[in-house]
Amino acid sequence: MSPEKLVVGLAGMPGAGKSVIVEVAKERGYGIVVMGDEVREEARKRGLNPSPENIGRIMLELRRSEGEAVIARRCLAKIVERPEDRILVDGIRSLAEVEEFKRSFRNFVLLAVHAPPKLRFQRLFNRQRSDDPQSWEIFHERDMRELSVGLGNAIAMADYMIINNGGLEEAKIKAKEVLARIEAEWMR
Q1: Fewer Cβ in 10 A, N or C end of the chain?
Q2: Reported pTM
Q3: How many angstroms separate the CA atoms of 87 and 79, rounded?
Q4: CA triplet 26, 73, 5: central angle to 5 degrees?
């Protein structure tokens, strides 16, 4: 094993299947750092409900006031502190964040997961997390906000891509295969 951590950044539009990749990574012994937790924590500190509107507004405010890579910078110490030698960072949203992680971790790899919008909306609507959209209009607004911070660019520049337009078991198999390939590269 390399003495340096393998850090896998995970990017994907809301509902694309990032949580499935996270689940598989956990099963494979990865430590998990969720970038969105930083924004939800900021909402909690401000005494705000973690609604899609509040989370989106806070995300944009933080980027304006502290730079595009603010969430990545806030996650660096959490990654270093994790005892695992393989870390999955869930929620990459921009190339600035990718660059921040690449500067900080020699063994950084970007993995993206993609699914069509209608399928993503249905998944989110069924999931019912506090920041999930209750209508197509809110879903579309969230997509546009995510794209406005550069998520599409990060997905386009990913080192590995999973197309998640099937069922849960198919997504898990694809995730296992891709993570195994990433780990094999790291072990060289």
Answers
A1: C
A2: 0.91
A3: 7
A4: 40
